[in-house]
Known about the structure:
Blueprint (H helix, E strand, L loop, with lengths): L1 H16 L4 H45 L2 H5 L3 H12 L11 E8 L2 H6 L5 E2 L2 E2 L14 E11 L6 H4 L6 E11 L5
Antiparallel strand pairs: 1-4, 2-3, 4-5
Helix pairs in contact: 2-4
Amino acid sequence: MFLRMRKAGRALKRFGRAKRGVAAVEFGLVALPFFLLMFGLGEVSMVGFAQASLDYSVNETARRIRTGEAQVAGATYGDIQTSICTQLSQFIVLTCNGNLYIDVHHYPTFAAAASGQSNPIQNNQFDSSGFGYSPGNASDIVVVRAYYRWHVLTPLFQPIFQNISGGQRILVSTMMFRNEPYQ
């Protein structure tokens, strides 16, 4: 029995002094946190870039409403959605069909506009049933909201990034302004 324990002790000492394979073991310990960090950083970067692109596209399209160009041309919900999607797709390849929702409403005062906004995310579900397109007339106060359904790519980060069920995040861009006194 003593001899067996002594042999096991020597084998354990030999194992502790061995240097072969140390780099592989260290890489194995560091690889998982490293790759999780890299994928998470990539996901955050993509969401940030998509949000900035959505803000830019809403700003450019809302300018057409603010100056009256959209009203004079008789632009529809589909036209405004296509305009935002075209601007959005200049920077990042995003699928707008079924993922991009627009809500344009006019109000008599800024106070009414601020109180008339409701959150379309209720109980981890996105509800676009109250959305519409009503750009108003000259000097009306208008709120343009665009929502993009982003599918979270990294499964381990879905619980952190999602704000609706199904591993999805709704990106939102809002502009409030008074229409110019166009004729």
